[in-house]
Records
---
Amino acid sequence: MLTVNPRLLSPELRPICDKVQAGERISDEDGLILYASRDINGIGSIANIIRERLNGNVATFIHNRYINYSNVCLLSCQFCAFGAKKREPHAFELAIPEIVETVRGALKLGITEIHMVGGLHPTLKGAWYLDLLRSLRALDAALTIKAFTAVEIRHLAERVFKLSIRETLALLRENGLGAITGGGAEIFDAEIRDKICRGKESAEEWAEVHRTWHQMGGHSTCTMLYGHIEEAHHRVDHLRRLREIQDETGGFTGFIPFAFEPDGARPSLRDIPHATAFEELRNLAISRIYLDNFPHITAYWISLGLPLAQLALNYGVDDLHGTITEEKIFHMAGAKTPQEQTVAAMEKAIREAGRVPMQRNTIYERIASTTPADSRPVAA
Ligand code: SF4
């Protein structure tokens, strides 16, 4: 088992390290101490105790493809550069045949998952969503359709299908939904939510969707949008709520925090500087330490960039998310990272960091590579 010499840690970290080495859970006060500490390597080494206890030396990634079916949205979250009103020039809506052709092409490259989210569309009918799911499932029964954030599920339940959350999830699953996405959690604190995403579902409503999905036997990921107007105690509160849901349901597979992108935000948020690399690494490592009941912590390279995500593999992270192809939400907000990664680039980044690359499926199970042999480099 990986151990850490306490003399190499800043004094404030030593009691926390003792707890982690003894397999004990850390408290909210410990979380705040971690967020106040500048000993980034000390925090990273504590995080790696849990990372290696749970996942050994393996680091995973998924071969997937993003689809945004439309960005037309009833809401106007203050941080969001993706959502649009129908009349706005950047509004778009994809037709089902167009989506199907895109996914058909991606399947030839070996993807195992479609990751599909959109805005809260004011006029799309229930039949359209069900037809979309059925059309994608018909392409390949083994393809996992991971789709819709909690707020989209609520929108579909309340405005489109006029069913309960549970009935809506059951209907979507009957038509092909395999997993729901973790987006829309933002920061759970109500006052902060009101300033960054007024009108969006509450923390309790977000949790209700995931809890219900888990009770139905489903899995999901969860997220945190940080680096805007929240403070450390808001992040700890966010992590505590996730840890509590996980204690109850065990349905979360991975946690994916990402930093706020200021460039595309409303003027009230635009002057906030982007989180630094130090902050991003520290936040990932603290997440690994605090969320002791989460099997996986994912570094979202779309937000971090692959070089920093690679570094995070030694700060508690054991997963690099996916190949993605055509990310829109962060790039419309100003992200300067690439929009896709090849399997070879993911594997190289993991190997360079001293970890063992493994492809995974949607629920983070390790699987054999699905990249066609003629698409694989001779030496990845
Ligand atoms: S974050 Fe989602 S719900 Fe909010 S405006 Fe953007 S697309 Fe709409």
Note: The pocket of iron/sulfur cluster is lined by residues 73, 75-77, 80, 82-83, 119-120, 151, 197, 200 (CB under 6 Å).
---
Amino acid sequence: MDAEIIIAGAGPAGIAAAVALARRRRDLAEAGRIVCFDKARFPREKPCGGGLTGHARAALESLQLAVRVPAVPCRSGRIVYGTEARTVALERPVDVVRREEFDADLVVQARSQGVIVVEAEGVMSHEVDRARGVVRVTTSKGRRLLARVLIGADGAGSRVRKQLLAGEPELRARPLRLFKLEIPAPRPFADEMIYDFSPMKCGLRGYVWLFPVAGGRLNVGAMHTSASAHGLGSGDILRILDRTLARHGVTLPSTARGWPAWPYTPRARLAGPHVLCVGDAAGIDALTGEGIAVGLEHGLVAAEAVEHALNSGDLSFATYTRRVRLATVGRELALDRRLARCLYGPRASRFWLSLVMFDRRMRELYASRVCGSEVLADKSASLLAALARHIVAAPLRLRRLSRAD
Ligand SMILES: Cc1cc2nc3c(=O)[nH]c(=O)nc-3n(C[C@H](O)[C@H](O)[C@H](O)COP(=O)(O)OP(=O)(O)OC[C@H]3O[C@@H](n4cnc5c(N)ncnc54)[C@H](O)[C@@H]3O)c2cc1C
């Protein structure tokens, strides 16, 4: 056997799974048998808003990984719709990092915990040999390696996931589209995260963000959920992004690039014998398009499942999809999938948008999730109370929303 565990991808999800396993199974780490392959060489380009929320912080702490790269601590978030804006304080700041720097440093830290990271060599395909109890992995350099477990942490376009689900009916939802660019800030910006929902009136099913980055720069972008095949095209989204940024006094020096990402679908299978998926390979947050905290938390769940499988000898991972669904990360993703359908859905979106804009307690509740002090999926009573309040207040709030257009 070449390795006990091979991990395809050394982004946050792959590194979290690898480090969590190295901590649980020191014997494997000391023998160099936890091996991550990444097709890129670090630092590699990674499109992302780079916001490390409270849940990301907590996961990093439990993995004894530190944020050692430049970060801008944002102590508030501002949500905007037309002429209306609301600021919500964050009891713990969200640190905005540059993913290129952050991910490269995580690789360095993982190596110091005994994880082997092989760069510039991707996982091309795998084959499960159930009789021998192994998975055979072929890399981009033509190596054929044997392992007991393969973890697919190879991001949104995951080859591992595609091969896992080959021939099965497609359960995954339509992809989100995310566009991003980092630019010099044209004027001083406060250390706060801006989420602008104004373009929803032009058909964007998502938002435009402006986050401060170290060195007087801005990370700007747009997220769009394509609920149907006949939604906005990339050109439309880029025009919307340009127009929205102009209202914040920002002109883009060049065109933002777009990437697809598939949202998490609770029913879709995440594992098969000897193989399991984490992070974007398993699905991103449909409400916000966020996935750093998700990937880190997901890596922890995967490591627990792999340790259990190695100890019990049952490498079927038959319960892994359910295990993720019941974990905090899965429950939060499932809730956000429902909230995304409300907020970005074709019919009632203004009803939900006016709730987000004008219900202070709802915004504070969401902020406490962002800070990591609450799990929103455990707050159904508070969410229902917010909905009840909103049903009463909606006529007035909807009028205010119309005036803000
Ligand atoms: C424009 C944009 C903005 C975003 N903004 C935010 C944000 O503000 N906050 C947030 O939390 N999330 C954000 N996200 C999402 C976040 O970037 C991802 O959810 C997160 O990076 C997922 O981590 P991951 O480890 O699963 O995947 P990745 O970080 O994508 O890592 C996957 C790794 O796998 C490697 N790889 C790919 N194929 C192979 C292969 N075949 N073999 C080996 N290696 C392979 C890649 O090189 C990469 O290093 C954004 C995404 C986009 C596109």
Note: The mean pLDDT is 94.
